[in-house]
């Protein structure tokens, strides 16, 4: 059974043998950057595990000629810009051929600046801030979507599906969450909705009573919660419900994480969020799930994007027959395959796009609810 699962995931892998300029077999070194400690460690660990699963599948399908193994060197960024720079420098010293990461845009941006100095390819599975790819770094790629795609989709959902006329926005001042919140505010205004207040909390806060009291008093149609991680969002959701706030809670893609429901429990029911559409019925997803879940548990937000990022990198290295960054980049730009999370094809700027939809939490599950073209999903 496992061989059949791996064969499904390996479909489309470039199987034409290439000669590597190597005398003896050696290890292909790949890096990952994500928070492995701190409040976002669950998401960062999901990224690491997604990459490990891709390596397992790739090696089972034959690996890469000239290399006896593919080894991952995971680095902990803790979603801290300074630690991200240190992690990137460590990966340079190790001599990795490419990097999957990071998670927080505030880590990916400075980390990628370091890697760019040595032309190291970086594919982020999770950083959605526009500046990740808009800076023009030649070896920066993105598997997930962008905030300037997510924000208009969220605003359109709130207006067309929820009938919202007023919105209260809160973020935690991070590059990602504040950038997305600003985008939602702009898009909402352009669509004729009123943002009654846009407030901020701090990372690490646990008591949100002051902000929530303001939100309850404002009584907006929607309480838009743009936060970096599931834990503070779960606590804010619980406290909002306890306070008796009646505004509909809508949140962002970082909450597409089963642990958000594990912490918020009943308070999470009925919460909406935007996230890139992943078809969980396709063979590629089912095969990934059967390998991933027994080892690592429920599939969370960015495990699939990390898997697709690592798969793209390994496919490009294999097709190039070298780890030379120019050659690998050329092969990355040729890729056009069905991944686990999405169809993978990169644009000239390194983005690969995402079809954002709205999900609703029903009975502890993320249920596709609305999409921008046809509205409600039946």
What's the helix and strand layout?
Blueprint lengths: L1 H9 L15 E9 L6 H20 L6 E10 L4 H14 L3 E4 L3 H12 L4 E4 L6 H4 L5 E3 L4 H14 L5 E6 L3 H16 L3 E7 L8 H10 L3 E5 L3 H14 L4 E4 L6 H7 L7 E5 L6 H14 L6 H18 L4 H10 L2 E2 L4 E2 L11 E7 L2 E7 L3 E2 L2
Parallel strand pairs: 1-2, 1-3, 3-4, 4-5, 6-7, 6-8, 8-9, 9-10
Antiparallel strand pairs: 10-13, 11-12, 13-14, 14-15
Description:
- The structure is a single chain.
- By secondary structure, this protein is of the alpha/beta class.
- The protein has an eight-stranded mixed β-sheet with strand order 7-6-8-9-10-13-14-15, with helices on both faces. Strands 2-1-3-4-5 form a five-stranded parallel β-sheet, with helices on both faces.
- The protein has helices at 2-10, 41-60, 81-94, 105-116, 131-134, 147-160, 175-190, 209-218, 230-243, 258-264, 283-296, 303-320, 325-334, and strands spanning 26-34, 67-76, 98-101, 121-124, 140-142, 166-171, 194-200, 222-226, 248-251, 272-276, 337-338, 343-344, 356-362, 365-371, 375-376.
- It contains 13 helices and 15 strands.
- Mean pLDDT is 93; it is low at 14-23.
Task: Please describe the structure with a list of short key phrases separated by commas or semicolons.
378 residues, single chain, five-stranded parallel β-sheet, globular, alpha/beta, eight-stranded mixed β-sheet, 20% strand, 15 strands
């Amino acid at each position: 059974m496992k061989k059949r699962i791996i064969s499904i995931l390996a479909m489309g892998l470039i199987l034409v043998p290439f000669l590597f300029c190597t005398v003896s077999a050696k290890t292909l070194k790949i890096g990952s950057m994500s928070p492995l400690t701190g409040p976002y460690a669950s998401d960062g660990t999901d990224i690491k595990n997604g990459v490990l699963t891709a390596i397992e599948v790739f090696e089972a399908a034959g690996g890469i000629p000239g290399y006896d193994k593919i080894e991952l060197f995971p680095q902990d960024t803790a979603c801290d810009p300074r630690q991200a720079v240190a992690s990137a420098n460590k990966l340079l010293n190790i001599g990795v051929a490419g990097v999957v990461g990071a998670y927080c845009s505030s880590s990916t941006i400075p980390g990628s600046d370091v890697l760019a100095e040595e032309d190291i390819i970086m594919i982020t599975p999770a950083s959605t801030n526009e500046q990740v790819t808009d800076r023009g770094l030649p070896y920066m790629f993105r598997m997930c979507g962008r905030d300037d795609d997510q924000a208009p989709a969220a605003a359109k959902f709130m207006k067309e599906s929820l009938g919202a006329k007023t919105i209260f926005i809160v973020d935690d001042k991070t590059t990602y969450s504040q950038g997305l919140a600003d985008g939602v505010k702009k898009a909402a205004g352009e669509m004729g909705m009123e943002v009654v207040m846009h407030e901020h909390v701090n990372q690490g806060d646990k008591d949100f009573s002051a902000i929530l009291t303001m939100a309850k008093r404002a009584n907006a149609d929607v309480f838009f919660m743009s936060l970096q991680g599931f834990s503070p969002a779960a606590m804010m959701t619980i406290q909002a419900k306890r306070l008796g706030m009646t505004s509909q809670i809508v949140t962002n893609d970082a909450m597409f994480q089963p642990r958000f429901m594990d912490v918020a429990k009943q308070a999470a029911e009925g919460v909406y969020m935007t996230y890139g559409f992943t078809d969980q019925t396709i063979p590629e997803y089912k095969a990934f799930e059967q390998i991933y879940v027994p080892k690592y548990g429920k599939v969370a937000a960015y495990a699939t994007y990390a898997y697709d990022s690592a798969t793209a990198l390994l496919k490009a290295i294999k097709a190039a027959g070298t780890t030379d960054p120019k050659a690998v980049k050329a092969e990355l730009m040729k890729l056009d395959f069905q991944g686990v999370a999405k169809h993978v094809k990169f644009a000239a700027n390194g983005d690969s796009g995402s079809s954002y939809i709205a999900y609703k939490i029903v009975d502890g599950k993320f249920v596709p609810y609305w999409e921008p073209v046809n509205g409600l999903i039946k």
